[in-house]
Backbone:
């Protein structure tokens, strides 16, 4: 039942492509789901993939095109003339998918492709969708939906559905509108089937529904669909007129993308890469963070350089540099990640920033106490060096406290400024915490080692 | 349209609870979605929440209970007698939700609750579901679905649906089975509406469908629903008999949970915490990773202790300790995160482990060359110390190479051993890389500083 991509399969297919064995390839693909074909495309060369696309043609090729990674799609479409893009691909797509594809084209090509679309209504729908912000409800909705007037009967409604339904792949709900197009409610197909055909729609529809205006950010759309377990969410304009619908499969992609973006940020990867990518994209994705890390390391060397005489003079001081730096980094990442995760979960939040920082202070205080006590006893027992014992403990205490508050405050501030708070889980905070940790350590060390009471 | 939880609202509600103003509270909640009420419950005390649950009762209270966090639910249910759990909550739930709730109860309570359920069929369904692994398709499916026999006509089918549909909230597809219950295909309601009532089901259903056996891991279920953009996926036993269905809303939760687990691992947080949690859970979630970090720091101090004379004798050697340790940690996290993300994305993968390690070697080689060259020139220009310049460059080169391969190999190995590869993004790898980085640095340093050619 499930398709399993194997090395043998790919080799066999490549041989067939080389032999231009059209019939065999077509019969190979006839029962495959577009998502499976997309996986095959991923391991073929651009030339081989192009051959397959043009061979499949029409609906199937368009579906496959929608399943492959954006970058590959862009590369492929760039090589095609506008009329081929319009007539062999765009015309087979739903308006939301078509708009995504057109959006991705160069500006001058966009107009040319729109002009080549033969179905005027479809071209108009796509042009409408292009006007919305790509990451808003308007930008991700599809215009294809089934709507019925509240004054109709069930019988008229069923007739109407059979006409409208041709354009719509799956009907989950029928939307009920009034004479001027304002969304009044929804009607499930189940209800339609179970109700007498003479009944009036206005008496049976469900008016207690969720909808969003076109300018709702896509993260909020995803949050609403997830929270209320919806399969589709209607989108309305600011007069409340029905404009489109967003389906749950689009939302899954958004949720995945958001989660991946946050994950990449905290693990120091720039851009969406996978192991199957080539060497250069994989390398490029890793260099920026390491560059910040290298710069941080050089700054750290500068800080230590100022105290170099202390480092060589005061016995043992150098040994705990990695401990202080690592703890500062770890505590900072933990704090900022908790903030980012809380924001991403999208739960309502009635705590003030001051309350959050106060709570974080308590957490930081306990953590700092625990770890500075532990390291105090470790050094007290194993080292005969009270200056060092106090230096490490006191600076670890200060560093944990500071890194916690810094790690909490910065993402909250970024979020307030409408900047992605996940930035704060990345290299900048870690590196800043590392350096500040070293400064604290050196200052505290200089203080204790210059005291004469020991 | 959307409910907005404010501090004022909560205070007003708490006052009403104190006054036991039942009527006002009921009217406050009558139009609220269970998911919104769950958010309110989250900020109320256990006592206040309990009062609301018992006031709401029945369907609504059950729906709210399903929306609150697991830990809160467990705490709440533990305080109730089995007959209340069964009759005021379980009986209003779908079989999959009911099974989740019962699963969570203590072993002896499970049986008691099942015995208290009055609907024998429902009790049987729940008991069936409890037999499946919680994280398999069988464990997350619901038994409620609408199925029709392939030999029926559309008319009989519609009649049958109106009978079966009472138990099922939403019908997305009707499942077509044969006389012995084997799943043959699906039928969309759209098709049913658009087809003549005399038509035979066997002539109109779609046999090209995805289904999974009951023992499919939930991650794979999520992957299939996501990949093929499904709204519901039927679950079959090993004879192919229809057993239940999994809906997309359950899958969104699984995707979110998986992403959160990986995110927590890489950011060093143990367990699912949010900023709104109390001080102690927040602290407890952070201590384990920091403990490993502290231990790593102590090991690092041991390593440096061995070379303490070198550190005090060789000028500048101590300054680059943070740089080496940070780069080792960062490179390791990057490598393992890419592996984890690739596995989580679940794409088919025809590369062998050897191929992956070879490719990672190329990436590591380029990265190592870039950064060791950069630091070479930095030190060459700013420091008049060739031993140090060579030591830092050469050890950075080795450390990047090693940390990359280690960071790639370990998660691949864990995955092969069926252990969650995300473990490798956590503290163990980072700490190990830190320590190994220091050892390399000290060995290379001893070598160059003892050379006499400079």
Residues:
């Amino acid at each position: 039942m499930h398709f399993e991509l194997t090395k043998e399969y790919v080799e066999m297919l490549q041989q067939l492509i080389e032999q231009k064995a059209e019939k065999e390839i077509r019969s190979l693909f006839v029962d495959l789901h577009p998502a499976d074909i997309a996986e095959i495309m991923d391991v073929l060369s651009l030339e081989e993939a192009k051959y397959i696309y043009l061979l499949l043609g029409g609906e199937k090729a368009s579906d496959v095109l929608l399943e492959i990674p954006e970058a590959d799609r862009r590369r492929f479409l760039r090589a095609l003339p506008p009329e081929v893009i319009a007539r062999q691909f765009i015309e087979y797509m739903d308006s939301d998918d078509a708009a995504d594809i057109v959006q991705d084209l160069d500006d001058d090509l966009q107009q040319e492709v729109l002009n080549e679309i033969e179905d005027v209504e479809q071209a108009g729908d796509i042009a409408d969708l292009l006007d919305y912000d790509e990451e808003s409800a308007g930008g991700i909705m599809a215009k294809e939906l089934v709507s019925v007037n509240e004054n109709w009967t069930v019988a008229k409604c069923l007739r109407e559905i059979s006409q409208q339904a041709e354009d719509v792949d799956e009907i989950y709900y029928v939307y009920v509108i009034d004479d001027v197009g304002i969304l009044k409610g929804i009607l499930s197909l189940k209800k339609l089937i179970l109700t007498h055909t003479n009944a009036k729609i206005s008496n049976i529809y469900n008016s207690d529904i969720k909808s969003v205006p076109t300018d709702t950010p896509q993260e909020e759309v995803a949050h609403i669909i997830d929270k209320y377990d919806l399969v589709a969410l209607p989108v309305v304009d600011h007069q409340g007129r029905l404009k489109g619908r967003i389906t749950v499969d689009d939302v899954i992609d958004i949720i995945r993308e958001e989660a991946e973006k946050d994950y990449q940020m905290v693990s120091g990867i720039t851009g969406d890469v996978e192991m199957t990518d080539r060497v250069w994209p994989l390398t490029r994705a890793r260099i920026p963070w390491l560059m910040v890390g290298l710069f941080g390391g050089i700054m750290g060397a500068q800080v230590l350089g100022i105290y170099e005489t202390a480092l060589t003079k005061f016995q043992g001081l150098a040994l705990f540099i990695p401990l202080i730096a690592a703890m500062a980094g770890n505590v900072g990442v933990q704090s900022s990640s908790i903030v980012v995760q809380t924001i991403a979960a999208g739960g309502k939040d009635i705590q003030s920033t001051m309350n959050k920082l106060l709570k974080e202070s308590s957490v930081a205080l306990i953590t700092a106490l625990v770890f500075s006590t532990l390291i105090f006893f470790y050094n007290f027992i194993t080292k005969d060096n009270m200056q060092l014992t106090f230096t490490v403990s006191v600076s670890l205490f200060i560093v944990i406290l500071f890194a916690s508050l810094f790690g909490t405050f910065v993402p909250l501030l970024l979020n307030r400024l409408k900047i992605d708070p996940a930035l704060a889980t990345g290299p900048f905070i870690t590196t800043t915490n590392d350096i500040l940790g070293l400064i604290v350590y050196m200052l505290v060390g200089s203080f204790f080692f210059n005291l004469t009471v020991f």
Observations:
- The CA atoms of residues 35 and 123 of chain A lie 26 Å apart.
